[in-house]
Amino acid sequence: MILSAEPAFAASGAGGPSDVVFFVQILVLLFAGRLLGEAAQRVGQPAVMGQLIAGLLLGPSVLGALWPELQHAIFPPNPGQKSMIDAVSQLGILLLLLLTGMETDLKLVRRAGRAATSVSMTGVAVPFVCGFLLGQFIPDSLLPDPAQRTVASLFLGTALSISSVKIVAMVVREMNFMRRNLGQVIVASAIIDDTIGWVIIAITFSLASHGTLDATSLAKAVVGTLLFLIVSLTVGRRAVFTLIRWANDSMISEAGVISVIVLLMVAMALLTQGIGVHTVLGAFVAGILVGESPILTKQIEQQIRGLIAGLFMPIFFAMAGLSADLSILKDPTLLLLTLGLIAIASFGKFGGAFLGAEFGGLSKREALALAFGMNARGSTEVIVATIGLSMGVLSQDLFTMIVAMAILTTLAMPPTLRWALGRLPLSEDESARLAREEFEAKGFLPNVERFLVSVDDSPNGRFAARVAGLIAGARGKPITVLHLGEEERTKKAAKEEQSPESAAKAGAAAVAEVEQQLDEAKPAKVDVTTRANVENPVDAVAEEARKGHDLMVIGLERTLDPKGTFDEKLAAVASGFDGPSLIVAGRGKHLERPESGFRILLPVSGTDVSRRAAEVAVALARANDVPITALYVSSAVEGQSRRTRASVSRRHEEEILKDVALLAERYDTEARTSVLVDGHPDEAILKVAKRGRHNLIVMGVHRRPGETMFFGNVVLSVLQKSDASVLLVS
């Protein structure tokens, strides 16, 4: 079958481009890349290595040597045919750079501080100089145009100096070192490496386009790159945020946000091409801006990652391997030059990173681990080499040598980094921080991405908005304020600066100051958007709910109706949202001055909603730097005294209160615990609140079945009789 199909492939590709050959190429590259990528991951190597090796096996290195007729039938040398698969590969480069930018955590770079900057600077400078000098002395036969030796040397220096942030992050994450102090320094250094590398590539491309290296062309390249970066990271950042929010909130078609992100990437790539800088810089910066968007939900990010990892990555890296011909290493001279290239790349990167780590204040063990980690070239070098080859700056032989260097250094990195990291003990402070982060990752509030605040312009609405700002502000989460009040009243409140938006912003600003004092890190600014809908609040809430909001805060003028049951409007608003809700019933000073402080009482029961309420209470306590009182009300069994209560019951109460105390401790908040045996929980809660002068009661509640909104008699009684404000977390 294969022998009979071979002439058909050859015939279809002989006259011109063939759709059949193109789809066969996609099929073969995708199948082989995915298969070997899976195999690579199963032996502890990155999938990229398997995909590169798949290309080497399908190219002239193996299949071309063993069965050249079949290799030429599947991958004919016809320029028109090659251009079809090359177009997919070029789009793959841009999408890979988009994904790399999205994974670039600038906050992590800031946290890593001096050590990461020092490592990246020396770790780039030393191998770059080595690579540039090597380019000045390699034979003319390895250069497509010896007159452009300087530009080729710049490409070679860049290829030797950049670490692959994807490979580094993959190995560090696989070893559960991502949150370790050194793991963060390693990844942050790789991020800076990548960023510097793409800026250098952009400048080098501009120089290569001019054909000569002179002061004028160099100045244009540097100034153009800097202007693009400055505008993108200031005005462009806000524009991208606004566009993604608009797409997420306004488009009803499937995957609309992903289409907008791809359009942004292409537009920024064309912009950099237009100013004489390579498209890769535009795609990379687009990725950074998209990744920092406050409403880029995990679902959207996973869809983009799936598209790129499932289709474009296997094809691009298999194509890169396909372009390399390792048979050239039969030549002793080229083999010796390749080994020299690998040695210079390894020792230059290792030495530069090690020196930078010591300058950055790390220990010798930490510096050793970091130097091993930074030596993985992987995907980044392959992209750089592919660009150089397509521009005619690198020859086919030099391209193959760089690909061989990228493969060998990347294969060596995981085992050496694992060995080095395994020798690093965990410090006491680091252990405490990791325990807190693991604890937090399982929580409710840390996983809330967007807040919907459904309020009117009443004092209770403003109080609810401030509560939302205090909770969201600690993590920099975006807030959408949905006005449910009368239009004239809304305008009046806005003029007097008493709107819910101003209350939410004030709450977020207040908690940001507290967080900065406690953690010495400035939280991200909270983005507050306002939407008005006075005609049909139920439909408005349902419409907003589909846009990815995780928690709704409700604050209306009336919580209860004259009969003492939940107000009809509040119940209707709550019914439009399927996720968790926080119903706010402000009382006393909180209605007069929403910024009034808290004395928090937290009745607990050990249920999931009680745990959510505990997180809300702790978040508000931390924002106001006050303790909380956790109260467990134990209903006495008839005929049983306090002293004779079962020991099993007491242990259960102690475990529930201990969990709350541990939660508070993780967030540097004090929790006072109390158990009260009483036959009537509502009376016990009200009595403790009055005795302790608590002005805020936070309760976890379950909605009971039925057409009317009902959370049980205890909750209703507390709402009816309490002088303190009440927050119901469902």
Characterization of the model:
The chain is of the alpha/beta class. The protein folds into three domains: 2-421, Na+/H+ antiporter like fold; 427-581, Rossmann fold (3-Layer(aba) Sandwich); 597-730, HUPs (Rossmann fold, 3-Layer(aba) Sandwich). The protein has 30 helices and ten strands. It has helices at residues 2-14, 19-42, 47-58, 63-66, 68-74, 79-102, 106-112, 114-137, 149-161, 165-174, 181-210, 215-250, 256-274, 279-291, 298-323, 332-359, 364-373, 378-390, 396-421, 428-441, 459-473, 487-495, 500-519, 537-545, 568-575, 589-592, 608-624, 647-666, 681-691, 713-721; strands spanning 451-455, 479-483, 528-532, 551-555, 581-585, 600-604, 628-634, 671-677, 696-700, 725-729. Strands 3-2-1-4-5-10-9-6-7-8 form a ten-stranded mixed beta sheet, with helices on both faces. The N and C termini lie far apart (64 Å).
